[in-house]
Design brief:
Elements (H helix, E strand, L loop, with lengths): L1 H15 L20 E3 L2 E4 L4 E4 L5 E2 L2 H16 L3 H10 L3 E8 L13 E8 L9 H13 L5 E4 L4 E5 L2 E12 L2 E12 L2 E9 L2 H10 L5 E2 L2
Antiparallel strand pairs: 1-2, 2-3, 3-12, 4-5, 5-6, 6-11, 7-9, 8-9, 9-10, 10-11
Length: about 220
Amino acid sequence: MKQALKLLLLATFALLTGCNNSSVKPIDEEKGFDYGRIRNEKYSNTFFNLEMNVPKNWHPQNKEEIKELTNEGRKIVAGGNENTEARIKASEINTASLLVVFKYDEEDDVMDYNANFMLVAENIKNATAIKTGKQYLNHAQKLIMGSALAITEIDKEFEKRTINGIDFYQMNMTVDIEGVPVYQTYLVTVENNFALSLIYSYLNEEQKNEIEEKAINTIKHKK
């Protein structure tokens, strides 16, 4: 199941290289920047004024676990191409994985795919051509298609999807993992010079519906 765990990071880091702004300050040095916190099964973030549910008994990753996944994902998505790996690494200064959650713990003895979701922020202050999630996904799609992922399907057009008053643009894709199709959905919104991406991975409609009902569809701005 470790390969499945890595899948999230594979596509994610292809996405995050969409707007490499090396001239902006590191994202965590932005005034008031907040990675957020989880309390009472709810994630909240003061910097982005957001909150969303974290399903009971699911497993949020800590900073060290996210760092390990980041390092693994960078190498795998680059597929041995040193220039690509260097570009991905350079982009990391502008991005922050705010929340990474798996349904099962890595030590759990389960046969099911480890469904997962994450919330990622990217500073796009210098990417003046990107004003919407749709424009962001246009850039990201090109980089994803040029990655080492075995993509079998990917949306060419991006639908607008509004969740609790927040306007996202959505992209779906299918990746072949050792002969098994694994599905991913990307939801991207742009606010205050940041791209916020919700990314979730699943094996079937049942898993997709569970993630959306228990987590994705609960995201909202705090009052």
